[in-house]
Write a structure and sequence with these properties.
This protein has a 5-stranded antiparallel sheet with strand order 7-3-2-1-8. Strands 4-5-6 form a 3-stranded antiparallel sheet, with helices on one face. The protein has helices spanning 97-102, 113-125, 131-145; strands at residues 7-15, 20-31, 35-40, 55-59, 62-67, 84-87, 92-96, 104-110. The chain is globular. The two termini are 28 Å apart. With 146 residues, it is an alpha+beta fold.
């Protein structure tokens, strides 16, 4: 099972610390079949209503990327049913290909190019993103922009 950068995935029955539930992920990077860096989404809103907009939102120490509900973000028309957020804080997960094969993963769509660039830039600029990931995101952004 191989996914590309920008793919939107639904992982069924994903084990969170407190529960098991279906979770969306976006592939931020991939190195062959060895691993993928994915970012988990949430519909929980940690930003005040008046700051909600599509794209990067900075609210104090919180930096998120917001996908507004019903706004097309996928090349095949995908949109989220609720406002959906990707937090730059502790939200980057590295999965080995073997682990991804054990999970029930459903491909949903691939982010539009501008959405992918903006999302990667959000992570790249965030002070919460580990330095090792910043280098990866910088390289990926350079590839996408050229």
């Amino acid at each position: 099972m191989s996914f590309e950068v920008g793919d939107i995935l639904l992982v069924k029955n994903f084990k969170l610390p407190s529960e098991v539930k279906d979770k969306f992920f976006v592939v931020l990077d991939r190195k062959g079949d060895d691993y993928a860096i994915l970012s988990m989404t949430t519909s929980q809103q940690y930003i005040c209503d008046k700051k909600i907009q599509h794209g990067i939102i900075a609210d104090g120490d919180v930096v998120v990327y917001c996908f507004l509900k019903h706004k097309q973000i996928g090349i095949n028309g995908f949109s989220f049913r609720k406002n959906t957020f990707v937090s730059t804080r502790s939200n980057t997960h590295v999965f080995a290909a073997s682990l991804l094969e054990e999970l029930e993963v459903e491909f949903k769509d691939t982010l539009l190019s501008n959405e992918l660039i903006d999302l990667l830039y959000c992570f790249y600029k965030s002070k919460h993103t580990a330095r090792k990931y910043k280098k990866i995101f910088e390289s990926r952004l350079n590839d996408l922009i050229q």
